[in-house]
């Protein structure tokens, strides 16, 4: 995990997951409870994949059960489902939005970008540990299990008919977003309780980037608490 902002997020939300801090110079007092190893600029460049390293990194424990085909014991009421989203920046941005709008977990297909890849972790800005993650080929089975447990499957689709307000009416929500080029599979669309369309001015922009679409949908799902639905 690289960058002061991302590491501070981990310190705030999951401090016990930090193993050690690597830094070019003595870090701020917020890191005083951790083992700190000072490194050289050449060592920093060899470790980091970014062109301009920020000079501070954290070694953290990996999320447990990320490759499991079963759900965690504490599932939560709102879950994000990503089907074959291949750009790591999009996956990271969606995980970040999921954490921001109080989604408990993210289910991903095996064809999704690796959520623990450097670019994806960087895009999460430290929120990758704030939700449970499952990257599995058994996502359809998990979807069916969640539906049987009372979750409504809302599929974001370019030609959907449901209005966005449907999102904040669900007590238990499973929000599905599909591949950047082809969208969701027929299997997920057929299983969906609602096919949601985000209205856009199609003469100017036919569709939204999947990360932008997901952020809008997750924001709207939180509006019942604020009396906006």
Describe this structure in words.
The protein contains seven helices and nine strands. With 229 residues, the protein is an alpha/beta fold. The strands form two sheets. The protein has a six-stranded parallel β-sheet with strand order 6-5-4-8-7-9, with helices on both faces. Strands 2-1-3 form a three-stranded mixed β-sheet, with helices on one face. Helix 3 (88-100) packs parallel to helix 4. The two termini are 38 Å apart.
How many domains? The number is 2
Biggest sheet record: 6 strands, parallel
- Which parts are unreliable, with pLDDT below 50 for 5 consecutive residues or more? none
Which oligomeric form is depicted? Answer: single chain
| Topology-level CATH name of the largest domain | Alpha/beta knot
**CATH architecture heading of the largest domain:** 3-Layer(aba) Sandwich
What's the helix count? 7
CATH domain class of the largest domain: Alpha Beta
In which order are the strands of the major sheet placed? 6-5-4-8-7-9
Coarse structural class: alpha/beta
Strand content: 15-25%
Give the integer mean of the pLDDT values. Answer: 91
CATH superfamily of the largest domain, by name, is SPOUT methyltransferase, trefoil knot domain
> Helicity range of the residues?
25-40%
Distance between the termini: 38 Å
Radius of gyration computed on alpha carbons: 19 Å
Number of strands: 9
Order of helices and strands: HEEHEEHEHEHEEHEH
Q: Identify the overall geometry.
A: elongated
């Amino acid at each position: 995990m690289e960058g002061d902002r991302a590491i501070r997020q981990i310190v705030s939300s999951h401090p016990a997951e930090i193993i050690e801090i690597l830094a070019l110079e003595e870090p701020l007092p917020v890191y005083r409870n951790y083992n700190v190893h000072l490194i050289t600029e050449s060592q920093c460049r060899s470790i980091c994949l970014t062109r301009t390293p920020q000079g501070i990194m954290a070694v953290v424990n990996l999320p447990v059960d990320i490759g499991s085909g079963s759900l965690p014991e504490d599932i939560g009421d709102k879950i994000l489902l990503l089907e074959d989203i291949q750009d790591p920046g999009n996956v990271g941005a969606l995980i970040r939005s999921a954490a921001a709008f109080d989604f408990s977990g993210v289910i991903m297909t095996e064809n999704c970008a690796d959520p623990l890849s450097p670019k994806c972790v960087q895009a999460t800005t430290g929120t990758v540990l704030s939700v449970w993650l499952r990257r599995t080929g058994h996502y359809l089975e998990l979807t069916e299990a969640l539906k049987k447990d009372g979750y409504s499957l809302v599929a974001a689709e370019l030609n959907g008919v449901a209005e966005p307000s449907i999102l904040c009416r669900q007590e238990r929500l499973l929000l599905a977003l599909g591949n950047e080029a082809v969208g969701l599979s027929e299997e997920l669309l057929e299983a969906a309780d609602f096919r949601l369309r985000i209205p856009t001015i199609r003469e100017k922009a036919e569709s939204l980037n999947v990360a932008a679409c997901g952020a809008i949908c997750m924001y709207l799902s939180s509006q019942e608490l604020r009396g906006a639905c």
